[in-house]
Amino acid sequence: MRVLVDTPIWSLALRRTSKDLSPAQAVLKASLAELTVEDRVEILGAVRQELLSGIREEAQFEKVRKHLREFDDVDLITEDYEEAARVANRCRASGVAGSAVDFLICAVTLRRGWEIFTTDRDFERYAKCAGIALFQSI
């Protein structure tokens, strides 16, 4: 199964050194490496932009940018945006708020039958009202 990797996972894998990771974070990084070897990783352009935004040093920006270039952005279609609005409406009706990018991530994975790899706890709430699948690391 394909796995859409969210910003927090990319950030700990590409913007932090291994010695700065907790044991739990090291497991997440190893899971991303395994998914990469298995060619199961997907990324949205919006996630790429989020990850690259805020990197102050040009050398680090280029290092992360070059690494991410190994992964093509998911091609989005009109139905992805429509489904994102549907998911947002469903969640808001249940009292769950979120960002447009988060709901787009949900929609893309729902429409394609993929899982989401994230540490963002908001996605646990989205799962309850939208039925998304969350990837469980090794």
Q: Tell me roughly what share of residues is in helical segments.
A: 55-70%
Oligomer: single chain
H/E series, N to C? EHHEHHHHEHE
Which geometry do the CA atoms define?
A: globular
Model regions low in confidence, pLDDT < 50 over at least 5 residues: none
Counting helices, strands and paired strands, the structural category is: alpha/beta
Beta-strand share of residues: 5-15%
Instruction: Kindly give the count of domains.
Output: 2
Q: How many DSSP-defined strands?
A: 4
Measure the end-to-end span. Answer: 15 Å
* Average residue-wise pLDDT: 96
Q: For the report, how would you describe the main beta sheet?
A: 4 strands, parallel
Describe the structure.
Helices cover 58% and strands 7% of the residues. It is of the alpha/beta class. It folds into 2 domains: 3-68, no CATH class; 78-134, 3-Layer(aba) Sandwich (Rossmann fold), CATH 3.40.50. Strands 2-1-3-4 form a 4-stranded parallel β-sheet. The two termini are 15 Å apart.
